[in-house]
Request: fold
Amino acid sequence: MKIELYSPLSIHEIGKRANQEDFLWPDLLEETTAENRLYILCDGMGGYEHGEVASKTVCLTIPHVLRRSMNFNSEDLTDDDLLDCLERAYQELDKAAIDNSRKLGTTIALLYIGRKGITALHMGDSRIYHIRPNVGILYQSRDHSLASELFQAGEITYEEMLNYPKKNIVTRAMMPGKDNRMHPDIIHITDIQTGDYFYMCSDGMLEQMNNAQILSIFSSNYTDAYKCKQLTDETKVNQDNHSAWIIHVSNVLMEDGDNTNNNEELTSRCNILHILPSSKCEEDDVKIVPESKNSLFDKIVNLIK
Reply:
């Protein structure tokens, strides 16, 4: 499968904060072209000092490691390759924590466009969307947040999750320390069509924007530059730092063997759309495999202690 892209666009706004804790790869100093295959978005955790150090460290370490081992713009990366990069990023966070007396933490959302499809990796509440204009949202990454975990455990309703007072508390993120080696969700997407969008965003982009608004913007007939402006205008009063990648598929050329690739977004629990209540069923009809309450409690305590 050969996936061709229009020139990707990014948003990188400070909001009402005093400093920018979001970081993007390719960073603002590098020229982003349609040939880029790797995109990363990190959001330094607001509850931890030096969040900008953590987000920058992770965002820069992963491409640095890949550049030393392979040309990630032309070769296929495996999940093991990406996990090895995360471990190296963890090691760099360990070093950064020694130089900083306070805690570091960051979310991560990563998209890799390969010859077997697209790999989406995330940890925390920075999201990845797969959007098919005028059809719908096919994939929305599952937030690793207290509100999301409580909803999945059946402790709160979907509506309560959307308005939960502590919805910014994440339950999985990249932090230094051997005991904090949390694992990402990884999903492989092979149902990719010309015109599809992949939208990566930090939670700051979502302060006043819901999925219906996001779908409406990407389904319009406006240019990508204008859609980027719409998203920027809609979020200009947001309090938090807010960043995004807009990645638009211009063409997909199928190759021998592509029909055997598994499209995991149809079944994976990484896709929050599989456990959201639909308009055609009652909430009690949604089947959820609850997580152990002790496990959930341990995760939260480890993050906030």
